[in-house]
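PT: before anyone asks, these are the final sequences, not the draft ones from last week. 669 residues across everything. Please model them as a single complex and drop the result in this thread when it's through.
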Amino acid sequence: MAVLVGRQTRLLVQGITGYQGAFHAKQSLDAGTAVVAGVTPGKGGTRVHDVPVFDTVEEAARETGANACVIFVPARFAREAALEAIAAHLDPVVMITEGMPVHDAIEAVAYARRQGVRLLGPNGPGVTTAGQCRVGIMPWHLFTPGPVGVVSRSGTLTYEVVAGLTRAGLGQSTAVGLGGDPVVGTSFVEALEWFGADPDTKAVVLIGEIGGSAEEDAARYIARSLKKPVVSYIAGRTAPPGKRMGHAGAVISGTEGTAEHKVAALEAAGVAVAPLVSQVPALVRTRL
Amino acid sequence: MKLHEYQAKEVFARYGLPVQTGTVIDRPDAVRGLSIQYPVVVKAQVLVGGRGKAGGVKLAKTPAEAEAHARAILGMDIKGERVGRVLVVPAADIEAEYYLAFVTDRAARRVAGIASAAGGVEIETVARESPEKIARLDVDPCLGVPSFVARGLGRRLGFSGTLLEEFTRIAAILYRLYWDEDADLAEINPLARVGGHLLCVDAKLVLDDNAAYRHRDLPPSEEMTPLEREAREHGLAYVELEGDIAVIGNGAGLVMSTLDLLAHFGGRAANFLDVGGGASEEGMQTAIELVQRKPGVRALFINIFGGITRCDDIARGIVKRPPRVPASIRLTGTNEVEAREILKTAGITAGIDPEEGARAAVALAKGAGGASGSAAKGGPR
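LR: through. Structure below.
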């Protein structure tokens, strides 16, 4: 079962002929993921790692039965790529692309909602279901199958947490990367709904960061509706107000978006919040 | 990127919005040459908010008074920002003040229109104290803000007759400006009634940096320090902080948690540079060069967890540009075995544990060269 992707996933890679697209298509193939098609306009008829490349998503999906999509194209083409994948009803559509204009993301998100397609990113690491399927850029060797779901706005922190869980002997169900941009396709609340409904997930690690109010929204949802234990870590406790901390979304403005506020909201919802990333696995163990 | 009021007003005027225009000057005596109707208002051009309360906006009845105000305001420090220019505008006889803005709503993942008949004050204050005075509009990006939508918003503020039609036009244009210029925020506060007509007395425009490539005519950003600007030109995210440990990491979340780790062990970051996803060998060399250039940097902490970034690319960059200051290196993830080999050949060691690496970096910055039991120390002195 797990969340979003699994053995049933037949993956289409947009931008498969590029440096990152080719590299990560290979990594996914090596992980046993069914990478069935690539799309690069103008390069139809070629092959990358023996995967057939098409000019359009529609053609690729028809010929190969692709049902999910990952996007590696440069930022200025990302809007087109996302709309094309959504129009073809691939689900999920996972956007790795960094630096996408926010208005382009707003359009992609609106269209995905209208079509009922689940969209991850932009500026995210993708989604990996341990032992089953790798979509995006997460290092596969870190994962081991098990009961812990992971959801995060940060790619590299997802790797830290997954590596820590594996070292502690705690396997993962699925790791979902939401992306670090101000407007992304999926919120913490939606990801928590998926984990809540997934019989393979017994506990969830929520990795948040300063800025915005997504963690506070998640806290409200957890208190109200989630029956599974949640452990959290919030990055940016020592960040000064008013500075964008790398992620366009990660900026404290006034009292909004501070780590203290998020930690307090999560703790009030019964979430165990780890002060250091390394303390996450021990907290998960006590709650499983 | 935030624009100054005078820059935002230029954009507003280009779109046909009724703006109160004036002249920008950077020397007090430049007031003398202005052909402008008195009284005037002298307004500090700064990117931080709250300039009025800080004494950066003054009314002047005569040229002599205006020059005195300009002299006082130019060079003034407003929340750490030095005033380099003032805008001199004819004073408006304001009959009523409204608020109108379009802003990217992160939580709703779309655009919000915000309007109020209680303008001229901070909208956050209105939202807190009398939320019923704020009219919100959720914009469907497929629909935008055609006149009927803008008119509906105007009706909610109580407009009718010719003022309603003026408001409708302004709101529809402001949305088009917000969308076409790739703004995060386009704000008019106050949108004032002057002589029975609506006038944009102030203008605020914050643009999306990611979309800068499709707006080549933009003025250079004044928000960044020279090093921050240089990093951006190389496609790197660099931010200056107050401490003495330079930080290079990949991914904003990891970098933030790295700063938190340094603080946990009693250290402080001097700056950080996020080499982002898929950093190249060259990018890493530039990163090492840039972070060390800030005065007062005593140690460097490189914390990389490779996903899309390949550790061997990072390692080659480090070998080609060995840090001048003592460095603690933590490297793990994609291609980490190759990376460790590359570093080893150059006599550089790297650890895999972030906490050990952070502890070592703090010790290095404090001058305690041989950090206790750490394998994460590297780089020639």
